[in-house]
Design brief:
Blueprint: H1 12-28, E1 31-32, H2 36-53, H3 79-86, E2 94-95
Antiparallel strand pairs: 1-2
Helix pairs in contact: 1-2
Length: 96
């Protein structure tokens, strides 16, 4: 069964979001999860959120349906704390 994010993987929009998260990782002293499928899922869903709303809402902490008034944008305010405490963020996208 295909995943909902499969159609966006590899698109220009997806590649733009991927470059953004790679830049965020570099700036935070972290790296992306070595599990390529996990990265594709999180970045793919974030791409879909960005296409829909114009912002990079975290797909792992979002409401269903997405609530732009209360859902958080990636990187979330807790990312650094999660990286320090757990070695990875809640989404398991960024790792120390």
């Amino acid at each position: 069964m295909a995943n909902s994010w499969d159609p966006v993987v590899g698109t220009d929009e997806y590649n733009s979001v991927l470059r953004r998260v790679l830049d965020l990782a570099a700036k935070s002293g972290s790296h992306l999860n070595p599990d390529e499928e996990r990265v594709q899922k999180v970045v793919g869903l974030m791409t879909m959120n960005h296409t829909e709303t114009g912002d990079y809402y975290c797909p792992c902490k979002q409401s269903h349906p997405l609530d732009t008034e209360k859902d958080v944008v990636c990187p979330c305010p807790d990312m650094e704390q999660e990286l320090d405490r757990d070695g990875y963020c809640f989404c398991k996208l960024f790792y120390r």
